[in-house]
Amino acid sequence: MGKIRKKALKAKNATSLLEEEIFKLVASDYTLEVKEFIKDNPHLKLVLVNYPHNEQQLASLSAELVQAGKKINNIILLSITNYELILSLKEEYLICPICEKIYNQKEVVKENEKFVCPRDSEYQLSLVATKKYSDYIIEYYLKNTELVIKKFLTTNKLSPSSVIQLTVQKKEEILAGEIQKNLIKIIDNFKNFYNLLREKNKLEKERDKALSKLLQSIIDWEVFGGSERKKVLEEYKKVMADIKVIQQHLELELAGEVADKAEF
User: How far apart (Å, rounded) are the C-alpha atoms in residues 102 and 207?
Assistant: First the structure.
């Protein structure tokens, strides 16, 4: 989401941000920017990080995705159940308002009391405003996450299993990259699953054609010779065997996903 947010700021020729403008970043609607990305990359699966933040953003994004023939299929929820850990993170770390990544205060605060993102020094933000933003965004997430998920499930008519939860027990999991690795693993599993699903759909279309041809050979018994009927039957059997293999792979992917959820 950081890339989209930065692109939107550049489009407005914004070179600096006041405190009130920083807070507005949270509630800003980036549906048009997402739409533009989908238009430029129609065949890619899109993964949105830290977006949408609220029900209004979700409704706007979902409506636009419907027009593009797409929808949100899954949510990966990062959960910190230990409130003491949340307080510890708030004291030691800052969340960049632009890229929304977390950084140790000692590494990003300059002598002039400005916050400078290590990934992008183009924007130097007020330290006071950045601290307020960090506190605000955490509280904002805690307040809105449940509402967004409920809206997501009802809008897309999905079961709670569409939400995969990663629970953080200690800050080292974030800082050492363990959470990032688990996220990548889940996303890769999604890619494999949907690739298999597309292949299954393709084979089912081939099955329908083969079945139609097989039935026609039975109806037109005199037209189709014995060797021709045998060939049609073999084509149908092959497609059914391929579908069975794909179905087995899909079941293994689903079983792996359940195991991953239990592990995480």
Answer: 51
Residue 6 token pair: 């930065």
- For 135-199, the DSSP string reads HHHHHHHHHHHHHHHHHHHHHHT--GGGEEEEEE-STHHHHTTHHHHHHHHHHHHHHHHHHHHHH
Q: Can you tell me whether residue 64 is helix, strand or coil? A: helix
In a domain, 99, yes or no: yes
Is residue 60 located within the same domain as residue 103? yes
State how far the Cα of 217 lies from the Cα of 208, in Å rounded to an integer: 14
Q: How far is CA 9 from the centre of its chain?
A: 23
pTM to 2 decimal places: 0.65
Grouping H, G, I as helix, E, B as strand and the rest as coil, residue 231 is helix
pLDDT by residue, tens only, the chain of 264 residues: 667 777 767 666 655 677 777 888 888 888 888 888 888 877 667 778 778 889 999 999 888 888 888 888 888 888 887 888 888 888 888 998 888 888 888 888 776 778 888 887 777 788 888 899 999 888 888 888 888 888 888 887 877 878 888 888 887 777 767 777 877 787 777 777 777 777 888 888 888 887 787 777 766 655 555 677 677 777 878 877 877 777 777 667 655 544 444 343
Please spell the DSSP secondary structure of 12-42, one letter per residue. TT-----HHHHHHHHH---HHHHHHHHHH-T
* Spatial contact of 38 and 68, defined as CB atoms under 8 Å apart: yes
Q: Which amino acid is at 67?
A: Q
Is the domain of 167 the same as that of 200?
A: no
Number of domains observed in the structure of the chain: 2
For residues 121 and 202, state if they share a domain.
no
Whether residues 162 and 243 share a domain: the answer is no
Range of the domain at 229: 195-263
